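Here is one chain, start to finish.
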Amino acid sequence: MKKTIYLLVFVSIFFSAKAAKVDTLEVFSASMQKNIKTCVITPESYKKSNKKFPVVYLLHGYSGNYSTWVKSFKEVAQQVDKYDFIVVGVDGNYSSWYFDSPIDPTFQYETYIIDELVPFIDKKYKTIAGLEGRAISGLSMGGHGALYLSFKHQEVFGAAGSMSGGVDFRPFSEKWDIKKRLGSITEFPENWDKNTVVNMLELVKDNHLKLIVDCGVDDFFIDVNRELHQKMLALKINHDYVERPGKHNIEYWENSLKFQLLFFHNFFNDKVK
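Its structure:
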């Protein structure tokens, strides 16, 4: 991981239900030459303990931001306290799709997360700074991003999940500013093919990653998630796959997040004794 200079600004917010605490901060990205906001949710036990904590990184969807997880998910604080790990709400701009854009140098979010944000969190917080203590998940655009980053960086993350993920965005080439990040699909098909998760499964067929994928049956991404699941089965890639009633909305994701955080809690307990 590259060495980077960081700027930190703390704003502390306390949840009324429990003592989980949110730090809103800015991390300087050398790759994009700007400060990027993020939020870090620490459990009630954090201040009182000298132990190191596992970390779950959460990636928002298209048009969201780093604060999605504290503004829209009303039970996230209780879950952080219950499972006793740290949650980091990552900002991926409104439409980065969490990779390094091959056509726009101002969108280098893979480099930012892997080489800048993760080392920053490990430096500033009491974390288990290894793949056994890191997981990543996200919703919609963030679901694609979480699988994309974990597939490419298995030295960083030990577990990953996707909630209603756009795991193959090629059928949606005119939507969500994807062509602004990759170019037109007709002019630059190779950019689309190599950056969509469904084409990256060869990277994880060794089964080092612990994976969970879910999607609502009435979601417009259900077909691409089913395709991903079938390809993972064919390649004998171990994973949990779940379909539940639900659409592409906050009601589904609030429920989904509960299952995914439990999944990561069990992963951490198995890995960190």
